[in-house]
Amino acid sequence: MAKTAPRRSEQLSDKVGELTSKLQDSQAWNSIFRPGSIFRKGYTDSPRNRSYVIMNSVLYHLHPVKVKRHAVKVSYTLCLGGLSFFLFILETVTGIFLMFFYRPTAAQAWDDIYTLQTAVAFGLLVRNMHRWGAHLMVLSVFLHMARVFYHGAYKPPREFNWVIGVMLLQLTLLLSFTGYLLPWDQLALWAVTVGTNMMGYTPVFGSQVRFVLLGGFEIGSDTLLRWYVLHVLMLPFVIVIFMAVHFWRVRKDGGISGPL
Ligand code: HEM
Q1: How far is the CA of 239 from the centre of ligand 1 (A)?
Q2: What is the Å distance from ligand 1's center to 7 Cα?
Q3: How far apart are CA 113 and CA 99, in angstroms?
Q4: pLDDT tens-digit profile of 58-114?
Q5: Cα-to-centroid distance, 165 and ligand 1 (Å)
C-alpha cells in the first residue's frame, strides 16, 4: 500500500502535466486561429446571434435570414432559374476541359474536335455534355421566363429584374450561337453563313454589322477566332456580371414573388 501511494500521485501529476500542456497547446493554437473568428460574432445559439452570423459572413450572406414558405416550394419556381444557373456552371466546367484540346484556326479546329472525340479519355462524353447542356440551358431559361411571366413576377417592384432577365436570355442565345461555329463542320459553317447573311439585312448598318461579325467579307479563320474569343471569354464574363445583378435584385425586391 505504502509503495503504491507515491506512484499514484506521480501518475496524477503526470496527468495534470499532460492536461496543462494540452490546454497550453490549444491556447497557442487559438491565438493563431480561433475557429469562432470565421463568424466574427461567435456562434452562441440565440435568435439574435443567428442573424448576426448570417449577416456578417460573406458565405452565409448569400442566403437570406428568412424566406417565405412558398419561395422554397419546388412547385412554385420549378427551380428553373436555379437549373439555368446550374447548367451555366456545367457549361463552364466542361468548356474548360474542351479548351485544353481545341485550337481556333480553320486548319486545326475540326481535326482537334475529331481527335478529342476519338483519342482523348472522356472526350466524347464531355463534348456531348457541353453540347446537350447548351441546348438544355436555352430551354430552361425560356421555361424560367415563362414561369416568371405566368406568375406576373415582371410587375413592380420586379420590372428591372425582368429587363436584366431579357439581357440574360439574349446572352444565353449568343453564347449558344457563337459556340455552334467552333466545331468548324459543314453544319456550323452554313448555319453561320445563313445567320450572318440575315444580319446583313439590318436596315442602314447591315453590311457593317456583317463585316464586324465575320471579321471580313466572308466566313473564314478570322471569323472563327472572333467567335471563339466571344464564346470563351467576353460573353461568359458579361453574363456572370448580369447574373450577379439578377440574383442580388431577387433579394432586394423582397425575395421570390408571392403565389397567385
Ligand atoms: C441565364 C439566365 C437566367 C438565370 C441563371 C436566372 C436565375 C434566376 C434565379 C435563380 C431566380 C430565383 C427564382 C427561380 O429560380 O425562379 C430568378 C428569378 C427571376 N428571374 Fe431569372 N434567370 C435567368 C433568366 C431570366 C429571364 C430570361 C427572365 C425574364 C425575361 C428572368 C426574370 C426573373 C425574374 C423577374 C425573377 C424574380 C421571380 C419571382 O420573384 O418570382 N430571368 N432568376
Answers
A1: 13
A2: 73
A3: 10
A4: 777 677 778 888 888 899 999 999 999 999 999 999 999 999 999 999 999 999 999
A5: 6
- Ligand 1 centroid to 129 CA: how many Å? 23
Residue 23 in domain: no
Identify the residue whose C-alpha is closest to ligand 1 atom 26. 165
The answer to whether position 101 is within a domain reads yes
> Residue 46 has what DSSP assignment?
-
145 within domain boundaries: yes
**CATH number for 226:** 1.20.810.10
Answer for the pair 65, 51: CB distance below 8 angstroms, yes or no. yes
Q: How confident is the model at residue 224 (pLDDT cuts 50, 70, 90)?
A: very high
Q: Please write the tens of the pLDDT for every residue from 147-166.
A: 999 999 999 999 999 999 99
| Cell numbers given for 209 | 454589322
Model's pTM, two decimal places?
Answer: 0.81
Q: Whose CA is nearest to atom 42 of ligand 1?
A: 165
Q: Give the closest residue (by CA) to ligand 1 atom 29.
A: 165
- Residue of minimum CA distance from atom 22 in ligand 1: 81
Q: Cell numbers at residue 60, please?
A: 452565409
Cell of 59: 458565405
User: Does residue 47 fall inside a structural domain?
Assistant: no
Q: Which three cell numbers stand for residue 169?
A: 436570355
Total of domains in the chain: 1
By residue range, what is the domain housing residue 82? 78-252
Residue 167 has pLDDT above 70, yes or no: yes
